[in-house]
Design brief:
- A seven-stranded mixed β-sheet has the order 3-2-1-4-5-7-6, with helices on both faces.
- The protein has about 230 residues and is α/β, with parallel strands linked by helices.
- The longest helix is centred in the middle third of the chain and has 14 residues.
- It has eight helices and seven strands; from the N terminus they run αβαβαβαβαβαααββ.
- The protein starts with about 30 loop residues before the first helix and ends with a strand.
- Bound molecules: S-adenosylmethionine.
Amino acid sequence: MGFYDDYNFDGLKFFSKLQDKTWITVSKPCQKFLSVINQLKTSSTLTVAEVGIGFGATALQVLKMLRTDDVYYAFDFEDRLQDFASDLQARDFGITCEVVLAGNSHNEWDSYNWNLSNMIFRMRERKQAGIFDAVYLDGAHTFLHDGLAVCLLKELIKDGGFLILDDLFWRYSNSKLGQKHSGGRLTREQMEDYQVLRVQELFLSNDPNFEKLSPPNAYRGVFRKRPR
Ligand SMILES: C[S@@+](CC[C@H](N)C(=O)[O-])C[C@H]1O[C@@H](n2cnc3c(N)ncnc32)[C@H](O)[C@@H]1O
């Protein structure tokens, strides 16, 4: 039984993939991200981000949870975000929060990191100390992309805000799709490595400004930025 089996996605291009068994690995929401948002909902308005939205398994539940003044940022390829936005326009899911689309191209060296870096520049101009209350990073799963993403996100997260890293023990060698996309791009050692775990250990686990909340062998890393 899939999480979205009871939903009516007829005529929707993007969300209908959540009922397609081909995409089973990205058809369930990230409960950890939902529970962090639930925990934060007692405070003032929230600004949250999902970096890599897949087919919206987590996004849809987050959007349904957020309130009118809350803001949800979606980072992904721009064509994917357009399909996501079209489905949200086409069907009333009872969503009231603001949705911000931060899309990037498919050019080989492009990624969500460009948009994240632009947000930092704007934030610094406004002398703001952080934008996001919670971020769920579930994008490319490469050291190349997500190492930089974590460095950027650490500044974009507010004091007391959360950063969740997914798939700490995912590796390219164990995934058919991963093998297809990494040909000629990664060495055997890099394909065998847990690249998101590498990022966590290099940039978060030893950072005194972040408290690690997840246990050592958890599949998801959960961190909270300490108040200054
Ligand atoms: C595992 S899926 C995300 C699943 C989603 N978080 C969920 O809970 O359903 C990974 C996502 O990262 C996006 N992604 C991977 N590399 C990217 C890049 N270079 N730029 C933008 N998005 C990228 C993919 O398009 C895909 O939507």
